[in-house]
Specification:
Length: 496
């Protein structure tokens, strides 16, 4: 066996060993005999170093004209296009999702990079009349400082890009902490920024665990902004940690997304949507459709077709182009899914498809679970309420639109929802009534595009949005500027 590749942190424009001298293994979830590499098991000292250089680099980066910052991002976008195929292949090896999806993940990073590069020539403010004569008023966006970016494993390059690109174009500097299951794809993104000419200290990456790297990074006194995507449980910790020093925090967290199938729906289309939403990325998307609420009038037909299609899905190593669903990310996630299957059975839901870990042959070397469907679910069952983050879909019967909306909104999360109907009145009612940050009509719960805001309500988010112009609002602060050219004291609200 050749010696495994050993990766480094990127701090101040150089690839450096962690101060701890320690490393952790990253293995292929479809074949855990395959070691992807050894990655820095960093600690507080590495975080201190990265934040210190990011703070220093901020002094000059904030003064680089935004269109020039955009030129670096444009070059990064072009390099990502050139390396798309190899980055997708590496991502399938470290994360498990199928090649089509990892290509989509890299494409999302490309889209975000080009979009934010363009924002270098926009970042529009406002000019507005003053209430006083010979006085001008305008607003400009100002950068904020050092940003800590803490990311999950399910979109290993796309999610880091959602945070890095808007932060940089606004003139901030960043320290990225990727999930321990997927450090390679985030390192690839930083390599691209390095090759595109990002100045030393502006973009840094420190790999390691949440407690050893994430905690010092989010509590550091010189960090002004924390952007976190991950579980609601950890997000709450991040929120509390940021409150002490009033750091800006953007939290994107869990989901329990719903597809509502009305009696007039195109059922084949709805089945396509439920299959893609429920089992795409093995159900490990924050926007996964883990609940399908179906009008009783079409329940039987829908379920028959859905179950037949789920049973026919080919599960295996995502590098094989014929495979439709890959493994789960790690053993712990597989155990969680197994536990929820048991919970579903105990709660009295009807197991219609799957329900167990896959075994035999290549399955014994990976974390594979069958696509699983529970029918006749009550909306208040735990499998209908809690985020499972695996290939498990709960099908819930309902009586018409009003009931579907009530069930759909009856969870603590609010990320994404979808309605399948041919009736424009039902579609617009759902668009208004769903308490989710994203609503789809006649499309599944997944499929966000980078030029629209992304995020959720209730326990999914804290009111901010990623992507689009909304991301600029998080990574910059408005400055209001008044220029009085009257040559005399003019008092607002008084000298009218
Ligand atoms: P996680 O919360 O376990 O970890 C997310 C990141 O936080 C990782 O980098 C982790 O190392 C770090 N972390 C863990 N503990 C920490 C601590 N105490 N202090 C600081 N950092 C810490 O989540 P995960 O398992 O990586 O991802 C799955 C979750 O992410 C799901 O709940 C999913 O819904 C959510 N998610 C949400 C979105 C969204 O946009 N809403 C997108 C993708 C994933």
């Amino acid at each position: 066996m050749p010696a495994p590749k050993v990766f480094k942190n990127f701090i101040n424009g150089k690839w450096v060993e962690p101060a701890t001298g320690e490393h952790f293994e990253n293995r292929n979830p479809a074949n855990h005999k395959e070691l992807i590499g050894l990655f820095p098991k960093s600690g507080r000292e590495d975080v201190e170093n990265a934040v210190a250089v990011a703070k220093e680099a901020y002094k000059s980066w904030r003064l680089v004209p935004a269109p020039k910052r955009g030129e670096i991002l444009f070059r990064a976008g072009q390099l990502l296009v050139e390396r798309k195929e190899s980055f997708a292949a590496d991502m399938t090896r470290e994360m498990g999702k199928i090649l089509d999806e990892t290509r989509g993940d890299v494409q999302e990073a490309i889209d975000m990079t080009f979009y934010m590069a363009g924002e270098g020539r926009r970042q529009f403010g406002q000019t507005t009349p003053s209430e006083l004569p010979n006085k001008a008023c305008m607003t400009v966006r100002s950068p904020i400082g050092v940003c800590s970016l803490i990311t999950p494993w399910n979109f290993p390059m796309a999610i880091p890009s959602w945070k890095v690109m808007p932060a940089l174009i606004c003139g901030n500097t960043v320290v990225i902490k990727p999930a321990t299951d997927t450090p390679l794809s985030a390192i690839h993104l930083v390599e691209i920024l390095e090759q595109a000419g990002i100045p030393a200290g502006v973009a840094n990456i420190v790999t390691g665990t949440g407690s050893a790297v994430g905690t010092p990074l989010m509590t550091h006194q010189d960090v002004r902004v924390v952007s976190f995507t991950g579980s609601t449980e950890v997000g709450r910790t991040v929120s509390k940690a940021c409150a002490d020093t009033f750091k800006h925090s953007c939290l994107e967290m869990g989901g329990k997304n719903v597809i509502m199938v009305m009696s007039d729906a195109n059922l084949d289309l709805a089945v396509d949507g439920a299959l893609w939403g429920g089992f795409g990325t093995s159900g490990q998307r924050c926007t996964a459709a883990s609940r399908v609420v179906v009008d009783k009038k079409v329940y039987k037909t829908f379920v028959e077709r859905f179950v037949a299609r789920a049973r026919a899905l080919k599960v295996g190593n995502g590098a094989d182009p014929s495979v439709q669903m890959g493994p789960l990310i790690n053993e712990s996630q597989l155990r969680t899914v197994e536990q929820y299957v048991e919970i579903g059975k105990q709660e009295g839901a009807t197991l219609l498809a799957g329900g167990s870990r896959l075994r035999g042959g290549e399955y014994d070397c990976g974390w594979f679970h069958s696509p699983t469907i529970f029918g006749d679910c009550h909306p208040k069952m735990r499998i209908g309420q809690e985020e499972i983050f695996g290939p498990v879909v709960s099908v819930i019967p309902c009586d018409g639109l009003e009931d579907a909306i009530e069930i759909g909104n009856g969870v603590v999360y609010g990320l994404s929802s979808a309605i399948y109907t041919q009736d424009v009145n039902k579609a617009f009612t759902a668009m208004r009534e769903m308490e989710t940050g994203i609503v789809y009509v006649n499309a599944s719960t997944i499929g966000a595009e980078t030029h629209l805001p992304f995020g959720g309500t209730k326990l999914t988010g804290n009111g901010h949005r990623e992507a689009a112009v909304a991301a600029l609002d998080f990574y910059s602060e408005w400055k209001s500027i008044y220029v009085d050219y009257s040559g005399k004291l003019q008092r607002a609200q008084m000298d009218t």
